[in-house]
Amino acid sequence: MTTNTILLLLLSLVIAGGLSYFQYFFKAKSKSNVIFLLAFLRFLAIFGLLLLLINPIITKNALEVTKTPLAVVVDNSSSITALKSDKKVVELYQKIISNPAIREKFEIQSYQFDADFKPSDKFDFKGNQTNLDEAAKNLKSINKNLIFPTVVITDGNQTTGNDYVYRFDPVNKVYPLVVGDTTTFLDLKINQLNVNKYAFHKNKFPVEVFLQYAGDKPINADFTIAQGNSIVAREKVSFSPSKKTAVVNLLLPADKVGLQVFKASVSSNTKEKNSYNNIKNFAVEIIDQKSVIAIVSSVNHPDIAALKRSIESNAQRKVILVKPNEINLLQDASVLILYQPTAAFKTVFDNNKAAGRNTFIITGNNTDFNFLNQQQNNLIFKMSGQREDYLSEFDSHFNLFAVDNLGFENFPPLQNLFGTITTSGNVSVLLSSKIRNVATNAPLLAFAENQGKRSAFLLGENSWKWRLQSHIDNQSFEKYDVFVDKIIQFLASSSTKKSLVVTHESFYNSGEEIIINSQYFNKNYEFDEKARLTISVTNTATKQSKNYDLLKGNNSFSVNLDGLTAGKYNFTVKELNSNTSYSSHFEILDFDIEKQFVNPDVLKLKQLALQTNGKAFFEDQADDLINTLLESKEYKSIEKNSTTKTPIIDWVWLLILITVLLTTEWFVRKYNGLL
């Protein structure tokens, strides 16, 4: 409180006392107890009003000390346990945070990381993944714009995320405290295995395997891939101190349909400290996509031979040539290509109404368009007898399936009868027609999808010239053949809409996220946000079942099945309001990525320290780390003088008190007849 304020308070006392005296004692004839009471009440009221005007404030000065943060980040992944360093990590952590000098100099912040990053001072070392990059990203945001050191207690073996070496803020020093046995042991390891998740039946699928060796003498290793008790591939691999890695490329036969599980392993005659990383299981879903495509035609034309070659460029397709009267040959066909249909095709159309096969109709100069109008309602033809050449124009907005523009505008014209072609219903146009660069606004290549049945229309003959032109442009038939295959793939796929759609993988690796997504559609095929979805998961070996609710997300429902052990599982997703269900299976392969290591990654951690101008320490150098932190002069506490100003009186309560005093004075005067 300042001197001026004190003087004003004294003056207020004098003024309040003077006014009270003048009011009640200066001219008073008698000085009773009531007069003294009234004078006292008036004194307090006037003094209170003057206090409101002065509003005296007490100023306090306090010295605040802000310590530099010290982030102590602990690796909580299961690789710490695998390297038998879990107790050592806890011991090192406690040694750092309990050091009195460290606690006096720094504000200690304790964190843990595995796949995620969070504040913690308790560690269980059960994380299935290691993501040090996540720790770097979070520390940047937590201590933004601060200069602070970071101690990372870890083995440095990261299994997911970006390379952590360059992810920490280079302004802030990082001091890795390396745990784990750094002694080099002989170790063979399957470092990485690349394989497609799917392969086609009776084909061969590639497997690429990267092998790694740690040791100081030459050895010969045996690499095998087994399925069950059978060895399906074997290869000898040699390593030496100068040859630490090897790549094995194999082609395996896809001779069984369904989910096929394989085991890749590498071994030698020398005993290893860690043999878990010598084995890696993988699975491939073998798909039987073999389909029969029937080309039905009553005429001979080069288009038919060109179509057959394009379609059969995919080994999973087989083309049969059928006359319109050979209906019995269509039993195995999944797609019908009807080339220039006429009235002779009536039995084919009638038969297909019951069979429900998807069709690809190609028209030309010999087509009976009146008959075609009777057999389908996607396109309406009003044709003359005059022939016309039609050029094509590519529609980039076509979205039924992905297709590239092969330069259709420069392809030779197709020939068809002149007339008017209009679309009806759900028709998507990929190529529209032009006559000598004049747009007709009519389709040339179009696709329709109605009530679960798909159709394609190519309105013109001589498409064999397109295949030839594509070869001239690209020195290969490949691009055109892929284009034709995409048309066949669209027609060969089932388009039946389902009310319950479930998305999942056929197999997962242990430690991976096991997420199953689902969508439920109402009768109008609109996403139903009010659906109630549950999933029942059963282990086929133990017969134990678990039930989960699927949680609503952005236009889908999902469930995370983390925690399931390796094995085969059957599951059923059910919508409770409609009792609609979907059943399938998946397999979890036994693979723990955190058990793949025999040594800490010292090189990476030293690179991290160098990148941030810090220093790496080993587990027996914890005292050196503590001394380095204490001796560093760049981490100093900041002292701030904090000034706080606090009013002596709460004006609200003082105003209430003044009101009470004046009211009391009035009642006393009234009662004693002094008004």
TrEMBL record:
Alphabetical UniProt keywords: Membrane, Transmembrane, Transmembrane helix
Lineage: superkingdom: Bacteria
Regions crossing the membrane: 6-26, 33-54, 651-668
Record has Transmembrane helix as a keyword: yes
Name under which the protein is recorded: VWA domain-containing protein
